[in-house]
From TrEMBL:
Keyword Flavoprotein: no
Alphabetized InterPro entries for the sequence: GntR_C (IPR011711), TF_FadR/GntR_C (IPR008920), Tscrpt_reg_HTH_GntR (IPR000524), WH-like_DNA-bd_sf (IPR036388), WH_DNA-bd_sf (IPR036390)
Domain spans labelled HTH gntR-type: 9-76
GO MF terms, alphabetically ordered: DNA binding; DNA-binding transcription factor activity
Listed SUPFAM superfamilies: GntR ligand-binding domain-like, Winged helix' DNA-binding domain
Superkingdom, taxonomy of origin: Bacteria
Phylogenetic classification of the source organism: Bacteria, Pseudomonadati, Pseudomonadota, Alphaproteobacteria, Rhodobacterales
Protein's recorded name: DNA-binding transcriptional regulator, GntR family
Record organism: Roseicitreum antarcticum
Gene3D superfamilies given in the database record: GntR ligand-binding domain-like (1.20.120.530), Winged helix-like DNA-binding domain superfamily/Winged helix DNA-binding domain (1.10.10.10)
Sorted UniProt keywords: DNA-binding, Transcription, Transcription regulation
Amino acid sequence: MQTSDKPRDLARDSVYQRLRSDVLSCELRPGQLLQERDLVGQFEVSKSPIRDALLKLEEQGLIEVLPRKGYRVRPIDISDVRDMYGLRQILESECIALLIETASDEVLEGLEVFRNGPPSPDLATWIDYNRAFHTYIAVNCGNARLARIAQETIEQFDRLTYVSVTSSDDLSLDLFVREHGEIIDAIRAGNKRLSIARARYHIQSSRKRVLDSLRHASIIDSSPSAR
C-alpha cells in the first residue's frame, strides 16, 4: 500500500516558511550560524525537511552553505546591495521593453491584479505581493533565460524590502502600490520609454530607502556567531 507524501510535504513547507519568515524579519540575524541538529530539535522534524528548506533559502540568496561548518544567514553588505540594485535596474528595464513588444492582451490585462495592494495589512503578505508584481513582468517578457535570471534576482530583495519598510516611520505602503499603478498605466499604453523611466524611478527610490536604512541599522555588522 502506497503511503501519502502529504504530511511530509506539509512539514517541509512549514519549516521553509518559518525559516524564511525569520530570515526576512531578521529574527535570524544576518551572519548567524545555523546547525541542522539545532533546527531539527526546534522544529521537531527529521533532517530532510530542514535540509530542503535551507537549500531552498540558499537558492534565494538568504542562506549560505559553509563547508564543514553548517549554514549561515547571508550577511547584508552595502556594496553588494548597490550591485544588486544596479543589476535589477538593467534586468527589469529589458523585461519591460520585451513585455511591451511581445505580450498578448491577456497578459497585459493580468497586470490589473496588481493595481491594488493586498487587503491584508500583514507585512509578509505585502512582500509577497510586491515580489509577485515584479516577477509577473519578468516571466511574461518572452525571453525564458532573461526571465529566470530576473526572477532569481527579484527574489533576493525580500529581506531588503522588509528592512526598508520597517526602518521608516513615515513610509506608506500605498506609495509602492501607486508607483506600481503608474508603471502598469505606461505599459498598457505601450509607452516603452515612460514605462522604463517609471520602473527605474521606482527601483532607484527603493535603493535610496534601503541604503539609508542600512546605514543606520545594526544588522549589517552582525557577528557570524550564533546568538
